[in-house]
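Reminder: ligand-aware prediction takes two inputs, not one.
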Amino acid sequence: MTTIFLIGFMGAGKTTVGKLLAHSTQKRHLDLDVEIEKKVGQPISQIFSEQGELSFRKIEHESLKKSMDQNAIVSTGGGIVLSASNRALLQEFSSEVIYLKTDPTVFIERLKRDTKNVRPLVTDKSVEEISAIYLPREVLYESCANFTVNTSLYSPKEVVREILAYLNKKEQML
Ligand SMILES: Nc1ncnc2c1ncn2[C@@H]1O[C@H](COP(=O)(O)OP(=O)(O)O)[C@@H](O)[C@H]1O
Ligand SMILES: O=C(O)C1=C[C@@H](OP(=O)(O)O)[C@@H](O)[C@H](O)C1
Ligand SMILES: [Mg+2]
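Here is what comes back for the chain with adenosine-5'-diphosphate:
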């Protein structure tokens, strides 16, 4: 039973790739943002504006804990690595942590176009401000990951293909 976690910055494609990967592996797909919205009964943007980021992070931590033993494909939110206890959960549990690495110019462009999903941390922010959120996170994504795919030049399907190749190779080595 392996739970596969997708980590990476906003716009890396964790939600999109998670759905496709779940389909290919016939595993259940869990998106922590969706789980949080269901639990609270409010969209992420409203949780941030009414309860604040700290409250969101606490619910996010509980949702991560709940997802650990689900044998699922888990799309995390980009801020999951900020908490040391979340990083410990990701690293200690026998799971795969896959980092969808994306160049800032690419995720900034994707975020600009993705008007359907309101991400409170990037709304109305300049390129410099978004980069300042990303930079300290980069090392945290890298420290948690078992495998990294640079998604900048790949379509979501190609990212899934890379992940499946990695998982198959690993299985053959066991
Ligand atoms: N590999 C990709 N190439 C081009 N666009 C992508 C890719 N992955 C995701 N996108 C697009 O970028 C936006 C953000 O994707 P999403 O899956 O929500 O990212 P995340 O969950 O990491 O924030 C969406 O509009 C999605 O269609
Ligand atoms: O990076 C972050 O701090 C966040 C990322 C979002 O998820 P995505 O990475 O799926 O956009 C969502 O959890 C929230 O807006 C905060
Ligand atoms: Mg997402």
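The pocket of adenosine-5'-diphosphate (ligand 1) is lined by residues 8, 10-16, 75, 110, 114, 117, 151, 154-156, 159 (CB under 6 Å). The mean pLDDT is 96. We will return to this case in the review session.
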